[in-house]
Amino acid sequence: MADSAAGKKKEGIWETIKTIFWALVIAGIFRTLFFQPFWIPSGSMKDTLLIGDFLFVNKMAYGYSQYSCPFSLCPISGRIMGSEPERGDVVVFRHPTRGVDFIKRVIGLPGDEIQMKGGRCGSMAKRPRWNRPRISSRSRNSRARRG
């Protein structure tokens, strides 16, 4: 009787260890390939994301590369199932030398012109100068009076 009780107890502990092991493996695969939680450490995105906010990042959004796996161990050359980010997307990337995660909003795409005016950052999609709308101060004032 004592042997069967000890055997059941030993079997129960072994089952618990196996369950915890497989749960950690599944969570690791899920976190590596699909979604990963991040914590906002600074106020650089205030008004939309505050210090201490948590967000889950969809790792499938821009495809997979060598750097999608921990320690850059994925045997992938280039990018598979990739797509380009769009203006306004929130992206997470690792600083190349410090190894710190940065959480930022995309404000410009390749070829865009970015401009700082009055402490505010603005993006204007790159268009030929002759196609850019020009608003003179006179037309601005007349619109304000009409509106």
Describe the structure.
The protein has 147 residues and is α+β, with helices and mostly antiparallel strands. It folds into two domains: 1-33; 36-106, Umud Fragment, subunit A, CATH 2.10.109. It contains two helices and eight strands, in the order H-E-E-E-E-E-E-E-E-H. It has helices spanning 2-33, 137-146, and strands spanning 35-39, 54-58, 64-65, 79-80, 90-94, 101-105, 113-117, 120-124. The strands form four sheets. The protein has a two-stranded antiparallel sheet with strand order 1-2. Strands 3-4 form a two-stranded antiparallel ribbon. It has a two-stranded antiparallel sheet with strand order 5-6. The longest helix has 32 residues, at 2-33. It is elongated and about 80 Å long. The N and C termini lie far apart (91 Å). Residues 127-147 have low confidence and may be disordered.
Which short descriptors sum up this protein?
single chain; 147 residues; alpha+beta; Umud Fragment, subunit A; 2 domains; two-stranded antiparallel sheet; elongated
